[in-house]
Amino acid sequence: MAHPSRRTALTTAFAAALATSLVACSGSNSADSTSTATEQENSQTATEANGSADNGSDSAATVPDGYTAVKLPDINMSFAVPSGWETLTSTDAADAERVSAFTQATGLDADSVQLKLETYSMLCAAVAQSDTTEEIDVRVDATVNELRTEEEISADNKENGLGAVDLSVSTTTTGTGAEARTMSYSIDLLGKMQYTTMINTLNPDGNGIVLFSITSTASAERAQELAEAILSSI
Questions:
Q1: I want to staple 42 with a disulfide (CB 3.0 to 4.6 A). Which of 30, 65, 71, 147 is the partner?
Q2: What is the residue range of 173's domain?
Q3: How many folded domains does the chain comprise?
Q4: How many CB atoms lie within 10 A of CB 15?
């Protein structure tokens, strides 16, 4: 019996993540090059880039130790990624050399990366090591201007039967005190478990919401760790 290829697995992973992200953000009203992140001070603040919280609190976005702030290309928001990760923006999609450098460093499939760049404004990924993959993909949905409720997200996931298990939806706050909705789940992709945490928060720079899709094949705890670093930094 023929076994699914790695490319098929990666495409399936992307399709599942995208479908779940659409559930998370639908239903409401309507870096210039590949780079390796360099470590910054633990006390670095991202408040200036991300704006102040509307609630007037003194909270400040901070980048945890071992992480570096990277800026989204299309809005005034920065977020934390592990130092040493590779980044690629949607503006790099037509640059074959940059895309090739990214895929070679991360071990990700070139076709899957190009497919993601049609939807996401930034891709961040760990340098290839053993058979573990970790990614943070970010996009802005300008057609939605409010966060869906926990009940709406949970109900739609059950109705659409996306195959996610251990689904958990919760409400939290970012480093600047803004409201955020998180959704965590795991999914079996052709015999390999992938652990995902998604973060939805309002765009501090204008209309729309910002969606972070964090995936790891290491563990659910690792995906949550990456998510918590992002939340503290935005």
A1: 65
A2: 6-233
A3: 1
A4: 12
Chain CA centroid to CA 193, Å:
18
3-state helix, strand, coil in the chain (%, to 5): 30, 30, 40
| 75 in Cβ contact with 140 (< 8 Å) | yes
CB 124 within 8 A of CB 136: yes
Tokens of 208: 């729309």
Would residue 79 count as lying in a domain? yes
What single letter denotes the amino acid at residue 52? S
Sheet with 86-89: list strands edge to edge.
Answer: 35-36, 86-89, 122-125, 134-141, 209-216, 192-202, 179-189, 165-173
pLDDT of residue 38: 44
Residue 120 lies in a domain: yes
Residue 99: give its domain's CATH number.
Answer: 3.40.1000.10
Whether 1 maps to a domain, the answer reads no
Distance of alpha carbon 35 from its chain centroid, rounded?
Answer: 17
The whole-number mean pLDDT for each consecutive block of 10 residues of the chain, a chain of 234 residues, reads 40 45 47 43 48 51 97 94 97 94 95 94 92 93 92 81 81 96 92 94 93 96 98 98
197: in domain: yes
Residue 154 phi/psi, 5-degree rounding, is -60, -45
3-state secondary structure of 87: strand
Q: How high is the pLDDT of residue 11? A: 41
